[in-house]
Design brief:
mainly alpha, 10 helices
């Protein structure tokens, strides 16, 4: 999308294990809290091997700022345990030799890891042309009219394999920005939407919008 530009990517892609655990922590919370929980894990334990060896309750205590501590600590524990059994280590470089579908099946076979988490590993750590679908991506794609689905998983299945080569990172990142800033769940700011004319959403909110500044960011509000 020209409106948001092309998002930057790090020169070195993150480790797949790091990405997967960070994505688990990001579920149902904001970026600040999930990042704090991730940093708590990384600072308290020297390696994922060490995390795997402590109790689930210890992990839960360390990541409590991210919420859903019992659920997330259980998912992390099961994932690390599965990785150890499969490879006798905590390295996921073996995924690089696998096809996208194989990786999705491999990761989602672990209890607590869903399609969105697995697809984040594909996009952010393995540089595959795969677009993870969260609530923002799901909502915006349905409102725009590119899909007609009831769940993020169905949206993911419908768009998989249909994106132009190399577009997934920009597509995913900018749809999230669109969903958070403009195409909000309640009272979307349609009057300033860069794709207003193309959007098929039937309940557009075309009320005027004011722009104010807060904490270094431009904030948009409908009047």
């Amino acid at each position: 999308m020209k409106h948001f530009g092309v998002p930057e990517r790090p020169a070195k892609l993150p480790n797949p294990v790091d990405t997967l655990i960070a994505t688990i922590l990001s579920q149902n919370t904001n970026d600040r809290n999930s990042y704090r929980a991730y940093q708590n894990l990384k600072s308290r334990y020297k390696s994922w091997k060490e995390v795997a060896e402590v109790s689930r309750k210890q992990i839960e205590s360390t990541i409590k700022v991210a919420g859903l501590g019992k659920q997330k600590s259980s998912a992390i524990k099961k994932f690390l345990s599965s990785l150890k059994k499969r490879n006798d280590n905590f390295d996921m470089r073996y995924l690089q030799k696998m096809q996208d579908d194989e990786i999705l099946n491999e990761l989602t076979s672990i209890n607590g890891i869903g399609v969105k988490t697995a697809s984040c590993v594909l996009l952010f750590s393995l540089d595959r042309n795969v677009c993870p679908v969260d609530t923002h991506v799901h909502r915006t794609l349905n409102r725009i009219g590119l899909v007609d689905t009831k769940t993020p998983v169905k949206t993911f299945e419908l768009i998989s394999g249909k994106l132009p080569k190399g577009i997934a990172h920009q597509f995913h990142t900018n749809l999230i920005k669109l969903g958070r800033i403009i195409c909000k769940s309640a009272k979307p700011l349609c009057s300033v939407c860069p794709i207003l004319k193309q959007c098929k959403y039937e309940h557009k909110n075309i009320q005027p919008v004011t722009v104010r500044k807060g904490n270094g960011f431009l904030l948009l509000d409908s009047i």
